[in-house]
């Protein structure tokens, strides 16, 4: 069964406490927190104060996805704001190994993300340093985009690379996840499904989370 990480990017920001409590009462494992700076991605979402506010009501670990340039400047701040897992983008980190060490020194779990155009092979030298790899299945910056189909192949490649390296980490997929692609993703080897719009725009978000959790594979 996949772990489920609903993204609060698609929540009602004026009712954030209510939506965090919905996640608390659901079958989800994490709360996915999307931080966008208007530079690494075209959009701006929110920063540390909102992350800290979510943390005050959260009963599940915060999976914080930093879509920002120079993320190393803010690691301590997001750790203080309650981040349990911190994801940085390989495309934003010239000294990725150092950045991942820093995340771990702060007591958080280190995670690295790759954009749709970035090959899985570019991760080969740091796979032993992370507890999670996030494969973007849309171009980062916005919720509600369509899932990019080459994600399945990238997941399979990463599963193979992980086995060859003899290391362990979770594979997370983020962007356009729904009940059509979730079974195929889990079948390909995904451990963590992020879902924003599909959960929060549904009539019954708790039931939608449950449905994602229970996806059948072939
Ligand atoms: O990182 C993200 C966008 O950059 C979001 O986590 C992702 O888009 C989730 O939203 P949706 O499920 O609506 O696609
Ligand atoms: Fe995300």
TrEMBL record:
Gene3D superfamilies: Aldolase class I. One of its GO terms (molecular function) is metal ion binding. Its EC number is 5.1.3.1. InterPro entries: Aldolase_TIM, Ribul_P_3_epim, Ribul_P_3_epim-like, RibuloseP-bd_barrel. Pfam families: Ribul_P_3_epim (PF00834). The keyword Flavoprotein does not apply. It catalyses: D-ribulose 5-phosphate = D-xylulose 5-phosphate. GO terms for biological process: pentose catabolic process; pentose-phosphate shunt. Coiled coil: none annotated. HAMAP family: RPE (MF_02227). Catalyzes the reversible epimerization of D-ribulose 5-phosphate to D-xylulose 5-phosphate. Keywords: Carbohydrate metabolism, Cobalt, Isomerase, Manganese, Metal-binding, Zinc. The active site is at residues 34, 174. A divalent metal cation binds at residues 32, 34, 65, 174. SUPFAM superfamilies: Ribulose-phoshate binding barrel (SSF51366). It comes from Persicitalea jodogahamensis. Belongs to the ribulose-phosphate 3-epimerase family. The keyword Zinc applies. Pathway: Carbohydrate degradation. PANTHER family: RIBULOSE-5-PHOSPHATE-3-EPIMERASE. It comes from the Bacteria. Its cofactor is Fe(2+); Mn(2+); a divalent metal cation; Co(2+). This is Ribulose-phosphate 3-epimerase.
């Amino acid at each position: 069964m996949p772990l489920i990480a609903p993204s609060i990017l698609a929540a009602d920001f004026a009712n954030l406490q209510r939506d965090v409590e919905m996640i608390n009462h659901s079958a989800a494992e994490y709360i996915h927190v999307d931080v966008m700076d208007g530079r690494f991605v075209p959009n701006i979402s929110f920063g540390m104060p909102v992350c800290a506010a979510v943390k005050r009501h959260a009963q599940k670990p915060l999976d914080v996805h930093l879509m920002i340039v120079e993320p190393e400047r803010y690691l301590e701040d997001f750790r203080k704001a309650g981040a349990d897992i911190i994801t940085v983008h390989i495309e934003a980190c010239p000294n990725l190994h150092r950045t991942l060490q820093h995340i771990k020194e702060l007591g958080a779990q280190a995670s690295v993300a790759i954009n749709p155009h970035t090959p899985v092979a570019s991760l080969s030298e740091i796979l032993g340093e992370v507890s999670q790899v996030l494969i973007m299945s849309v171009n980062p910056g916005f919720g509600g985009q369509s899932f990019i189909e080459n994600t399945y192949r990238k997941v399979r490649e990463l599963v193979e690379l992980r086995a060859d390296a003899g290391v362990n980490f979770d594979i997370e997929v983020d962007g356009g996840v729904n009940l059509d692609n979730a079974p195929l993703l889990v079948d390909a080897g995904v451990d963590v499904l992020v879902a924003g719009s599909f959960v929060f725009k549904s009539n019954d978000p708790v039931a939608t989370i449950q449905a994602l959790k229970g996806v059948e594979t072939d």
